[in-house]
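testing teh design pipeline on a random one, pls ignore if ur not involved
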């Protein structure tokens, strides 16, 4: 992984300029992503702030790690990024390739050029990081794609990526009352408080340490999440053992998704139980309490995503709590 990996110059007869991204491009990038969202997953949207947040990350440089395809008229019609996760824990390196081609510009070979650049840049980032880790480092390149996006699957598999893990979006009708759950002895359930940000990050990293593809979240990303415009502490719930967070159900609300889904809803971003407290019914407890809050807020649906092969049997748990699968996505992986 330590060899020199050149990044190719993308070429396409309909693209006048290939370049990195600046803050001035945030709206143009969002326009491409939003147009792609409407085709690839029409029930939810990518917020502009999610793109803007990438320009604040210390481990990601849009000028070097993002490529824009621009026409002679100055229109950005495709975007691709290679983001190396900042964690080096256990010598595991993951680079995520994300982006989109505007639907009006698909099936012209532009996506193939974008992915070739992303692929090389991702390998380059991994090689640079691996050089400082010594022997035994492992690395993956990952693309997350909607199951129905056949074009993305075709391009990715032609580049050597293989489907490895599937994820289901599950939706719950909130006209059905939330189930009642009693807390085990010694456990209290409270709404999220920003004073617990650091403790919540520790709990998140403990709970997800043995989940497929998960690496520790870092403080700057965590603050962007819990301090972001969509996170809803009042709908989120923490289970405490004394003062320690031992389980959590964290929810957000993006009203733009109400339009695309056709119903007001809350998205449940994270559900987890620290390993020392598993097997005590804490996951259904915090989910039920969060659902109770979502219902009390008058929202019509609750939405979450789940790894269908989760070793915790999460999808079965969510079905018992009234969630039903709707859409599916897949992780396409290339191991280096």
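output:
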């Amino acid at each position: 992984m330590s060899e020199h990996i050149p990044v190719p110059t993308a070429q396409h007869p309909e693209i006048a300029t290939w370049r990195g991204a600046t803050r001035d491009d945030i709206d143009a990038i969002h326009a491409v992503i939003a147009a792609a969202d409407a085709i690839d997953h029409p029930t939810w949207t990518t917020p502009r702030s999610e793109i803007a947040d990438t320009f604040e990350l210390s481990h990601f440089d849009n000028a070097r790690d993002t490529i824009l395809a621009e026409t002679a008229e100055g229109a950005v019609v495709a975007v691709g990024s290679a983001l190396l996760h900042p964690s080096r824990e256990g010598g595991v390196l993951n680079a995520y390739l994300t982006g989109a081609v505007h639907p009006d510009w698909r099936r012209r070979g532009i996506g193939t050029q974008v992915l070739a650049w992303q692929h090389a840049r991702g390998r380059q980032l991994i090689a640079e990081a691996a050089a400082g880790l010594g022997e035994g480092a492992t690395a993956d390149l990952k693309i997350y794609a909607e199951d129905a996006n056949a074009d993305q699957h075709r391009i990715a598999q032609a580049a050597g990526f293989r489907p490895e893990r599937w994820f289901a979006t599950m939706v719950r009708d909130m006209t059905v009352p939330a189930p009642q759950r009693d807390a085990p002895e010694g456990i209290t359930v409270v709404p999220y408080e920003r004073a617990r940000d650091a403790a919540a990050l520790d709990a998140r990293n403990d709970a997800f340490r043995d989940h497929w593809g998960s690496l520790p979240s870092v403080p700057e990303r965590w603050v962007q999440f819990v301090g972001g415009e969509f996170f809803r502490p009042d709908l989120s719930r923490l289970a405490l053992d004394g003062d320690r967070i031992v389980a959590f159900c964290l929810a957000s609300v993006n009203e733009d998704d109400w339009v695309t889904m056709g119903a007001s809803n809350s998205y449940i971003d994270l559900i987890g139980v620290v390993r020392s407290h598993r097997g005590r019914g804490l996951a259904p407890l915090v989910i039920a309490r969060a659902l109770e809050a979502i219902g009390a807020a008058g929202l019509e649906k609750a939405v979450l995503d789940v790894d269908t092969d989760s070793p915790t049997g999460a999808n079965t748990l969510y079905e018992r709590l009234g969630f039903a699968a709707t859409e599916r996505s897949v992780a396409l992986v290339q191991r280096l």
